[in-house]
What we know:
This protein is of the alpha+beta class. It has two helices and four strands.
Amino acid sequence: FNSVVSAYKVGNNYGFVVKTYGYGNEAMTSYFIIDNSGKIVKMSVAEIILHSDYFDAYTLDEPSYLAGFAGLDNGNYTSEVSLISGATVSSNAIDMAAKAAFEAFAVIGG
């Protein structure tokens, strides 16, 4: 979980700031709030679609996409959750970020 740049205890939850890199070493910063049981309460991203994906044909309803992470834990999260049709670079970066947040939670909270 070396891509976790910050971890916070916020009330009964844990906050994680994760910086992952996609194709061409493009940085993507993701934010995860995970509750005491290890479930994602909220996930957000500074920029969901990385620059290298801008010229691809992708479809994304951002609010629904982000809400789809809520309630997931390390046991039921799969890479398919992070999939954005037509935006592979961004999908991979978000997948790596979610996995890193779960790993960090396992060390400090779980």
